[in-house]
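Let's practice the habit of predicting before peeking. Look at the sequence and jot down your guess about where helices and strands might fall. Then scroll down.
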Amino acid sequence: MSASDRETILVMSAGFGEGHNSAARNIAAALTAESGGRVQPVVIDPFTAAAPNLSAFMKWGYQFMTNRMPGLWQWLYESTRQGNFGNHVWDRFVGLMHWLEEKLAETRPGTVVMTYPLYASFLAGLNAAVPRPRRVYIAVTDSITIHPIWTQAPADRWFVTDDYSRDVVLSLGVAEEKCTVTGFATPASFAAGTSPERSGVLYLATTATRHVKSTLAGILRDLPPSIPLTIITGRHEERLRPVIQKLLRQHSGRQTTVHGWCTTIPEIMGRSSVVLTKAGGATVHECIAAGVPAVINYVIPGQEEGNAQLLEHTGCGCRSEDSALTGALLRELFTGGGLAAMTAAMQTHRQPHGARLMAQDILAGR
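Done guessing? Here is the structure:
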């Protein structure tokens, strides 16, 4: 089947947090796999495409606020709960509506999937000459603390990560028959599960430099040296590696591995006893997909709060309230039985098939 014969499905994301993009990529991959290549999913970021310079500035501002001014971000998050998210502001300053109209006219998709909530608000205001998609699906990438923006515009179905989040979405006015619990759209590779011989701590170091320094110093001081440590810095390698290497030189005798950008996180996570991470939607749900307990050491107020709550509600993880005491908390989990209890809870709540379940529902509704 040629590309021109395949039905196009647009998957719309935005780079305000990696969770939106990760979910979009994984849904697209699942649509391709589940359809046997009969559909052509196209992942797009309308913000970046419509206004690349302004989009880059806005994404920088988002990262700056969430890392350096979390109180301001929390105020913005809460104060916009009653906001109007129609297209008038974005049309004026970003040109997003015009870009969407052109894209829909070009691709004429029968189905659109959204992993970022704003775009659904634009569909009602499309120019009458623009072909409208027959089906609209929204994959909610937050848990429990779900902003009303996710539910304000019409859609055919909402996919949510868990039963707690389903209750929240229903309370925001979504009809029960339109809301499905699937889990997060994690990569298919997480379905392989964990290694029977797991050991050590996987630290996903992505927070501010001072926070990483305090956290790692506590780990190296308080965690028994017999417990291996793996550190992944991802896109923050240039900023964090000098700090990490300096601390490691001061504490010899521990098996420690440091990675920058890493494409084998599912395998590394599956070999670990526990993951230390901020409460990002993608990462928390990757832990749940892999069945590996998580310790949360940083929460962006607002949307990430619910991800930490989900781990606590299910017994699959806990929080480290003080970065300097994170090592002591991990030591207690390993020696006091807490880690074994969280591991057992993870086996009950593990959900590695979110993207596949979404794809099956989407394809059945075409």
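How did you do? Residues 175 and 190 are 31 Å apart (CA to CA).
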